[in-house]
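re: that chain from earlier
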Amino acid sequence: MERRRTAPDATDMPMVADPQAASALLAEAFAAATAAVVFTGAGISTESGIPDFRSPGGIWSRMRPIEFADFLASEEIRLEDWRRRFRMRREFAAAMPNAGHVAVAGLVAAGRVAAVVTQNIDGLHQRAGVAEERIVELHGNGTRAACLDCAAAVDLDAAEAAIAATGRAPRCAACGGLVKAAIVSFGQPMPAAEMARARAASLACDLFVVAGSSLVVQPAAGFPALAQRNGARLVILDRQPTPLDAAADLVLRGAIGDILGALAGAPA
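^ sequence. v structure.
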């Protein structure tokens, strides 16, 4: 059953930029919560050196995104998509989880965060120690691949070797279907199971913390508002303003690693 609440008036919404004060308020919010969700976007991973997609100088300012329909229709475009994925995988492998990722993993391990819903595809939450069953990857994961027809998992090393050997995009060994990196491309349907998990987590939580998301990419950006309408407290942590700041219960400005990282020694 859904709880209902009214969002705070914009004039009442506190905004905090001092890192120590922000960490203290966030620690209080987690201490008061019984079921928290952390929702992460590119901002948490840019602090690990991974470029985001949409900001000036980001990935999409340097190359046009590949549409899912074009991937399906063109062998040349499939090969270009794979070249990008292999380059991205090397960037992901070179990056290390930062203090923000480690703090989120610690909160999950301590039972203070029930689910991590992420728009990121870099696998850094897993590398920081968050168990797969606690992560909801709305946009997929760029460190693995799968068949588009039968969903069989495909190792990226095997996909790269197949392209090197044949000069063609890899096909599934089980059914012959097209293999694609396990991320959601433009025009590709959102993963129904992950969307359902994110919705359930949003409706079950009493604290929803956004960390590093611009909150402009739909439908993922709808989950914070859903959680708040259902009674959860909404906290937004980001360096930049977001469209939901005026509706949030608390807005924290600053480096995500600094503010989240200071929670490591906070009492439960």
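The chain has a mean pLDDT of 90.
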